[in-house]
């Protein structure tokens, strides 16, 4: 299966963030929030779109591509509604997913998908690539679960590339699926869940902070990365929130965490 989805958010004449372009292709289904009973936490002038995995995917051989553009001054919260289950296909071969975002001057993107579970015998490659204007804001979360209950995970390779202006902020690759490496204290220390959130926000932390299996580390060219290890997704999310609370903008950043 090959699928591509596109989303563009811009400011309208009244200064509201509105969806200007939305193209979905199953399993990448984009659903804007309309007529909410009560407003969600956070700025009222932002667009809120939910990313729904509408069929079982990714399977081995699938190729998924999501493109997101946030116009000048616009704000977008793009969040998941359920976990993604990475499964092996009927034929040998890996699945692939790519998320490419662009945020223009003064724009803000919050990309908060739910966790990804890598099941036995699955092979998956995931890429996140972001191009930010110099004064754009962004946060992106990744939570990886190594297998279902009592299951050895398959193989996963994720890469993150973030630039602001023309300056690289993050170049990171993570490979999972090697039991000896995952058991190492210098890698995952036997944890089943690894969570990270990269934050390019209004203020940057001056010094790194850390706690029980979590840390917040400032990046050399601006921004920061929060990381957490845990035995389950609930604990990982709690520890990630603990890390973000130590950020100078921690109150704002933890509003959407639960």
From TrEMBL:
<protein>
    <recommendedName>
        <fullName>Urease accessory protein UreD</fullName>
    </recommendedName>
</protein>
<keyword id="KW-0963">Cytoplasm</keyword>
<keyword id="KW-0143">Chaperone</keyword>
<dbReference type="Pfam" id="PF01774">
    <property type="entry name" value="UreD"/>
</dbReference>
<comment type="similarity">
    <text>Belongs to the UreD family.</text>
</comment>
<keyword id="KW-0996">Nickel insertion</keyword>
<comment type="subunit">
    <text>UreD, UreF and UreG form a complex that acts as a GTP-hydrolysis-dependent molecular chaperone, activating the urease apoprotein by helping to assemble the nickel containing metallocenter of UreC. The UreE protein probably delivers the nickel.</text>
</comment>
<dbReference type="InterPro" id="IPR002669">
    <property type="entry name" value="UreD"/>
</dbReference>
<comment type="function">
    <text>Required for maturation of urease via the functional incorporation of the urease nickel metallocenter.</text>
</comment>
């Amino acid at each position: 299966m090959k699928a591509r989805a596109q989303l563009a958010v811009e400011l309208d004449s009244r200064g509201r963030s509105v969806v200007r372009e939305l193209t979905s292709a199953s399993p990448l289904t984009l659903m804007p929030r309309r007529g909410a009973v009560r407003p969600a936490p956070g700025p009222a002038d932002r667009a809120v779109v939910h990313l729904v995995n509408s069929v079982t995917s990714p399977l081995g051989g699938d190729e998924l591509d999501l493109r997101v553009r946030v116009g000048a001054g616009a704000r977008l919260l793009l969040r998941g509604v359920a976990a993604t289950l990475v499964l092996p296909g009927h034929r040998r071969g890996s699945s692939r997913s790519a998320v490419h975002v662009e945020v223009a001057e003064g724009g803000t993107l919050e990309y908060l998908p739910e966790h990804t579970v890598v099941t036995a015998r699955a092979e998956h490659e995931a890429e996140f690539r972001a191009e930010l204007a110099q004064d754009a804001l962004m946060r992106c979360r990744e939570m990886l679960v190594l297998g279902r209950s009592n299951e050895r995970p398959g193989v996963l390779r994720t890469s993150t590339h973030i630039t602001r202006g023309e300056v690289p902020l993050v170049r990171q690759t993570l490979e999972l699926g090697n039991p000896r490496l995952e058991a190492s204290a210098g890698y995952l220390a036997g944890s089943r869940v690894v969570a990270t959130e990269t934050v390019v926000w209004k203020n940057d932390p001056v010094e790194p902070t850390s706690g029980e299996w979590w840390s917040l580390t400032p990046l050399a060219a601006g921004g920061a990365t929060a990381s957490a290890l845990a035995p389950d997704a609930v604990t990982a999310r709690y520890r990630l929130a603990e890390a973000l609370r130590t950020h100078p903008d921690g109150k704002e950043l933890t509003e959407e965490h639960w």
